[in-house]
User: Fold this.
Amino acid sequence: GKSGYDHYMLKEIHEQPTALRQGLSGRLDELSGRVTVEELDDVGTPETVHFVACGTSYHAALYGVELFREAGIPAQAFIASEYATGPAPVPENGLVIGVTQSGETADTLAALREAAGRGAETLALTNVVGSTVARECDHVMYIRSGPEIGVAASKTFSSQLTSLNLLVESLAGGATGDSRELVSALRDLPGDIQQVLDETTAEAVVDEYLGDDAFFFIGRGQNFPVALEGALKFKEITYEHAEGFAAGELKHGPLALVTARTPVFAVVTGNDERARKTIGNVKEVEARDAPVVAVTDGQSDVERYADHVLSIPETHPRTAPMLANVQLQLVSYHMADRLGRSIDKPRNLAKSVTVE
Ligand code: M6R
Assistant:
């Protein structure tokens, strides 16, 4: 059942600390800073990686791309339905990774079959033991999120991002100082998410923007997939118009849509060059009178330009996007709830899409 929550989605949002502990269990060694994923013991370091996925899982794949690139391995993410009809050639020793919570998404299965047919090695990152993807791929890693009932993916996205860190460390990482920091950030992640859940002000923030025209989400780097995911979740369960943009793309067109009735959710974590540039983009929307909600760890001065702040604890650059995502999940949930939407079963959608 829903264990006292009004919706499965809210229950699953609150299950994230537990889901992530399950996913991390036995896979982190804090002393050495090493990650071990038993299922991946027989997978070598790939020379290049293609991800194929749909929807939320595609956003997870975009996050995975950057992890591989940081590890020195060229990687690309493809929308599975596009890859299935004209896959990019996979070079020798290339690995094609299908990211799919259900393991049954027809588009993703078709892309993987196409890749396998061309001789690529395939790996499934999935939640469902014994699913079609798990049976068909050469290798499988489980995200161990536990069953997800809500049509809108919530905890499984967090589990995918966490698992991608483990996957990349295990295939391409080393026991360096950097790895140790990541391992300790991953260990702290369930507690950090709990803190976001306990202290969020998302419900009060959405009340300010009921009835507005459209909702935009912006981010840069690892916060770009989070912006895309924030917008997908928002449109899926609120039925309101929402779009996610790379923060730097706004001025190349979308800025024309920005008014005093289009709140912009800006994900800004850390205080590096990327954060500073995104703050520049925040100033651009502010100058067009758009309300700004900053989702931030407080390291930069983005709060100065924001009407509201959704705070997350300070953490590692790889885990910060996951904490920001939890705030955006709550934004979508509370807006949908205020609008009386069918949150667990949005119109026109199914939990797993088994047609191409
Ligand atoms: O089961 P999969 O991860 O393959 O599903 C892919 C998409 O259909 C799925 O993520 C969809 O976008 C969700 N409903 C988003 O909340």
Q: What stands out?
A: Residues 54-57, 100-102, 105, 108, 151-153, 232, 236, 349, 352-353 surround 5-amino-5-deoxy-1-O-phosphono-D-mannitol (CB under 6 Å). The first strand starts at residue 28 and ends at 29.
